[in-house]
Fold this protein.
Amino acid sequence: MLFSKLNCVVKYDEPLKNHTTFQIGGKCIALIEPKKVEDIIEAIKICRENNLKFFVIGNGSNLLVPDDGYNGVIIKIKSEFSNIQVEGECLIAHSGAKLSEVYTVAYENSLTRFEFASGIPGTIGGAIFMNAGAYGGEMKDIVESVEVLDLDNYEVKELKNEELDFSYRKSIIQRKNYIVLTIKLKLKKGNKEEIKAVYEDLREKRNSKQPLNFGSAGSTFKRPEGHFASKLIEDAGLKGYHINDAWVSEKHSGFIINKGNASYKEVMELIEYVQKVVFEKFEVKLETEVRILKD
Ligand code: FAD
């Protein structure tokens, strides 16, 4: 087998619907779950020697994958690469740590400033890639530095916050051949009770406003300048509009959800339809926030 010399989990012909929160997506050639940097480098070298494409994912919570899958290798950086450590007011996490796990460690160490991210269902590596944010905070505000693997020369280098070129749902990682390895956050000593109270409040807000009992990738569209995507979609009369099991959520019209067996094709049709109607009515272009994994 192609990846037999790797000392980590390799799943061949793995359905990607098992690895995306949309619960949509066909098979890939192999899915690799690296435990250390050397596994990532080794896996990529094997892909390159065999002319195989590869793509890195975290928790697949911002990802839409075609029904016929991905004709390449998926490198899934999640639980196997998720160590978290605290040094004074800094928290250092491997990129596969889930944001909820990072929150727990921050809370246990009375560290504040991470509460805004606690309910985002991704890994911290994916959150750096996306400059994920919620409730007035974003990763940009708390990142001190990030270690990346440069895929042009397999070197590990450190990028300071200023070098990450963060802006709304953007970071330099989207433009470079980098894999995020380790993240250093600059947090602050706080009061445990207050940290928990903020966390509970935000959790309650998410539960009451978001359709968390269905598959989705969160907000389907970015916030267009001067508007809210969900308001435009609702005002266009599209709340509850659906193509088979792909729905514009009735609870939050900024979310396209999978109510059962929605396919990639149906979700894409729905995305394009929403974009078309909103543009016709309000002359606002909705750009997708969800990343689409194309062959
Ligand atoms: P994935 O979806 O696996 O990947 C996303 C992108 O990041 C891909 O292009 C992938 O190649 C890249 N990537 C992932 N890991 C790495 C790595 N280690 N190195 C390099 N590139 C990498 N987002 C928000 O910003 N705010 C919210 O409030 C929010 N709420 C959500 C609510 C729900 C219910 C859901 C399902 C999603 C929500 N999201 C939200 C979207 C999503 O959780 C975030 O974008 C998250 O940061 C994605 O992380 P991930 O690990 O799942 O990344």
Summary: The two ends are 23 Å apart (CA to CA). DSSP finds six helices and 19 strands in the chain.
